[in-house]
Design goal:
There is one protein chain. This protein has helices spanning about 15-35, 205-215, 230-235, 265-275, 305-315, 345-350; strands at about 45, 50-55, 75, 85-105, 110-115, 125-130, 135-140, 145-155, 165-170, 185-190, 220, 250-255, 285-290, 290-295, 320-325, 355-360, 365-370, 385-390, 405-410, 415-420, 425-430, 435-440, 445. It is α+β, with helices and mostly antiparallel strands and about 450 residues long. It folds into two domains: about 15-20 and about 40-170, Jelly Rolls (Sandwich), CATH 2.60.120; about 185-445, 4-Layer Sandwich (Purple Acid Phosphatase, chain A, domain 2), CATH 3.60.21.10. The strands form three sheets. Strands 1, 2, 3, 4, 5, 6, 7, 8 and 9 form a nine-stranded antiparallel β-sheet that branches. Strands 10, 11, 12, 20, 21, 22 and 23 form a seven-stranded mixed β-sheet that branches. A seven-stranded mixed β-sheet has the order 13-14-15-16-18-17-19, with no helix packed on it.
Length: about 450
């Protein structure tokens, strides 16, 4: 292929027989001269099997991990007809990159960048292609250091998408392994309408399939798991046919619709989830993962003094460095339900305990807020709130944009993909079309 780039030189176009002869002579000479150092200068493959993400996938058989699995016949493919698109690999802390080799499928990039980042937010360019023609691109002589490397396509070479059989990153890895507490969580609220996959307009089977493709450590739900009245029979007929596939790995909380059950408030919810929703014998509970403490609350009963005292005691006992809470009713929302003051006392307790993140549903849209205090004042030591009510129920319009609201999306169904480490967190809102609709900043825990 043509070598036209604003980066260190890549492979030449010398005829193959001459290349092979020259390589054999050179290797033979090195082995004779320095037998104890044979291979010492070779680039080391550091990307194979590492965690990978992408801006989109064509379908679940073409996930980003396929470009890093070491199998020449599998591949990542993005959504068709959309620019830009990217694929990213986590190399571990302080990786040094000297070479990147790309093997394109027929759907190649005419223009793309190879970039590296320490935090997944700020990127430094290592190489730039402006006239690509597919096949194999072998970028050598690179100099870059960071944790994340991505291939960022800006112009497709075909009418399709971007597709890579392999992305091979060479160099050295740092001596520090990724944090042992690093993990991924999928979250959504307002999920199962009374429909099944037999209806093309039914959304919750699609969000469930997306959630499974992400393959997180576990799943969170932020209430209104089953519409309309959360009967046990409805849980079995609808929710169980989609999100029920990973019920054992789900950590739910109830919403207001769970209180409408004629058999009694939360009756169907409790019968369906059992000890999964009541692990401590109450409709609220807590648990730890890595360096994170999660608090699952029942916002239908924030006026219950017992739950409030439990929350204070639970946070006082916490020894983890990062804290996330999730419940149904958001204190702040730009959607139809708007702000819900019932959550303010709980926010104050969480803020006093230096909590980092609050996840909510109730309003059927996606929204993220800048860090703020319980009174809605922007502050660096505030809580980040995310509304993620697009799990499958009918979307609500954005009505009154609240202060500190940074991004709002209503319409596309999807889930939150939360990436957490011992000290940081970030997230993406991923649509059922496998496209990343929004990416949050990377925050450091308080």
């Amino acid at each position: 292929m043509r070598l036209n780039a604003s980066a260190p030189p890549r492979r030449t176009t010398t005829p193959l027989p001459f290349v092979l002869a020259a390589v054999l002579l050179l290797v033979g000479g090195l082995l004779l001269a320095l037998p104890d150092r044979a291979g010492a200068a070779a680039d080391v493959l550091i990307s194979q099997g590492r965690p990978a993400t992408s801006s989109s996938v064509e379908d679940s058989t073409f996930g980003p991990e396929k470009a890093f699995d070491g199998v020449s016949t599998t591949r990542w493919a993005s959504a068709e007809g959309v620019d830009p698109q990217w694929i990213r690999v986590d190399l571990g802390p302080s990786a040094t990159v000297s070479r990147v080799k790309l093997v394109w499928e027929a759907a190649y990039a005419k223009a793309y960048r190879i970039e590296i980042s320490a935090d997944g937010t700020t990127w430094t360019r290592l190489a730039n292609e402006t006239a690509g023609n597919g096949a194999t691109d072998d970028w050598t002589g690179l100099t870059g250091q960071g944790r994340y490397l991505r291939v960022y396509g800006t112009a497709r070479g075909t009418s399709y998408g971007y597709s890579l059989y392999s992305v091979e990153v060479y160099g050295t890895t740092g001596t520090t392994e990724p944090p042992t507490g690093a993990f991924t969580v999928v979250a959504a609220g307002d999920i199962a309408a009374q429909c099944t996959a037999s209806s093309s307009s039914c959304a919750h089977p699609k969000t469930a399939a997306l959630a499974q493709r992400i393959a997180p450590s576990f799943y969170l739900t932020m209430g209104d798991n089953q519409y309309d009245d959360a009967l046990l029979s409805d849980f079995r007929n609808y929710y169980d046919k989609s999100w029920g596939a990973f019920k054992a790995k789900t950590r739910p909380v109830p919403g207001n619709h769970e209180t409408y059950d004629p058999a009694g408030p939360l009756a169907g919810y409790k019968s369906y989830f059992g000890s999964i929703a009541y692990p401590q014998g109450k409709s609220y509970y807590s648990y730890d993962q890595g360096n994170w403490h999660f608090v699952a609350l029942d916002s239908n009963s924030f006026d219950d003094a017992t739950q409030i005292q439990w929350l204070k005691d639970d946070l006082a006992r916490n020894t983890k460095g990062c804290v996330a809470a999730y419940f149904h009713h958001p204190l702040y929302s730009s959607g139809g339900h708007g702000n819900d003051p019932v959550s303010k006392p709980v926010w104050q307790i969480l803020y006093n305990a230096k909590a980092d993140l609050v996840l909510n549903g109730h309003d059927h849209h996606y929204e993220r807020f800048a860090p703020q205090d319980p009174n809605g004042r922007a502050t660096a030591d505030g809580i980040v709130e995310i509304v993620g009510g697009m799990g499958g129920a009918e979307p609500y319009d954005i009505e009154t944009v609240q202060p500190n609201s940074q991004k709002r999306i209503s319409g596309p169904y999807g889930v939150l993909k939360l990436d957490l480490t011992d000290t940081t967190y970030t997230w993406q809102y991923v649509g059922t079309d496998n496209q990343v609709k929004d990416s949050g900043p990377t925050y450091t825990c308080h």
